[in-house]
Amino acid sequence: MKKKRFYQIYSYAFWILIIVIFGLFILITKNYISKNYIKSFEDDLHTKTMIFSNHVKHEIDQNGLNKINEICDYYVDENTFFSVILPNGKEIGWSQKNYQKPDFYAERPEVKSALSGEYGKHTRYNIGLKETFIHIAIPIKDNDDSILCAVRGSSPTSKRDLFIIQFEDKISQIYFIFSLVTLIIFIAISNRISSPLKKIIKSAKIISQNKKINKLPEHSIFEIDELSQTLNTLSLKIQKNTKELDIKYIEQQAVLASMQEGVLAIDKKQQIIQINRAAISILEINNLDDTDSRIIQQHIRFSNLQNFIKKILLTKKQATKDMTLNASSIKSVQVTGSPLTNEKGVNIGALIVMRDITDLRKLEEVRTDFVANVSHELKTPITSIKGFIETLSSDDFEHNKETKKFLEIIRQQSNRLNTIVDDLLTLSRIERKEEHIVFDLFPLENIIKNSIALCHHQAEKKNIKIKMNCDSNSEIKVNSALLEQALVNLIINAIQHSNSNTTISLIGQMKDKKIIISVQDEGIGIEKKHHTRLFERFYRIDSSRSRNDGGTGLGLSIVKHIVNAHKGEISLESEIGKGSIFTIKIPIK
Hints:
The protein has helices at 6-63, 68-74, 109-115, 158-208, 222-258, 277-283, 296-299, 303-315, 358-392, 401-433, 444-461, 480-496, 543-548, 555-565, and strands spanning 81-85, 91-94, 120-126, 131-141, 147-156, 262-267, 272-275, 319-326, 330-341, 347-356, 440-443, 465-470, 475-478, 503-511, 514-520, 569-575, 579-587. It is α+β, with helices and mostly antiparallel strands.
């Protein structure tokens, strides 16, 4: 749509309105004056005719009809013609001797009216004189109210019409001059208003480009002055806010650039909003600024990371995952994703934080290899120690009570050391073979039964009952040996931390495409502060109790690694004095 300027809309509109109003005023005035002038013209003719008729009547009363022509000669006037007509239509007096007398007076409408005793008036065009005349006829009556004659006064309308035409011309000239003057005035007024508005518009455009403007001057029109001063204030505030935002942006960029972790912000359309140098390095992005599109599929070629980002955008929940990126070199990355919200709490995308843990993984491999090697090396001397203790404890040797006591202590500690070495070897084996574990279909019920059977002897010692509730027809794809070991560790842990004459319940079910196995005891419970560290190596809630029970501090760590090997998760619910529930959830393959 074509847009019009301010003066084109309002100035012309007001000018047209005033011109129309003034034009109506001129038209009404012209009509009023013309009508009044015509009436005055007719009244003047009527007055002259009345004077003439009075003179004629007086003469008739004095001398009869003999001297009527003399009276007509006395009333010679260029603009007024008088004539006297008898009832039979005969003209007996005519004031204009230079003009031809009209014929057939009796047929004239005004004369007819006068001879019938009424006032007559008529306007018509005279073909002979080629001019329009107005005629007024007045009856003259005797004392008996009989018609003696009719007096007619006639006057040409040419001078009257000329006056009206000249008057209309003057009025038109005035109207034209007024229209022109008002147009010039309105254009001047609109320019006075639009000129500062143009400056304000120009300044607003400069402000929109984040540029500084020259201060707008004061103006005599209140509204324009208010607008100018408001724009001046707005410009100062925008400049101030822009500087603050620039500083904050530089600080933000500096923080992001100095971070060792990669930071990646994604919107709902999977477009990259923000990315720091560490993330570019981790993801090996080269052409981010060379293309218009910033969609992640064009710049991030790792499908596992793409799927993780899609999951965060879909679920709108925080998640952490370790993954391997097959870039120019194989990288191990710990990725944490969380929903990205604006100041109103509305979700606008996802924030991905990536930590390169390649070196850490290598160190862990070194540590694992070291522990495995040391454990293997310790296995032989420990076995030798145990053999010598068994030999020394046999009946072939006689020992006093004190010596037997020390031999028993050595035997217990060597057994404990052997158990720790076995657990360390188990952990190392699981960590090494996590990517190569074989999964097969096994009945869930059988796995739980086998685990209970392996712990039956320990439970009998404390008179603890182990109950099982499991879906009998459930077959799951797992490594049965590892899962049995995890359950055995959980059951033994429950036995160690439960009082005598209590119950341990194992529940196995398939729900929401997951295998869910719960181990519930009626033990002493675990305080909330221990939950986050409970699955760490060698972490003990009560060191003295764990050692007395023969625990190594590695059982729950082994459970955690076995569950991770199955891509599952383990959780804990516990209440002091009532017991604990360990729940394993493994996705169905």
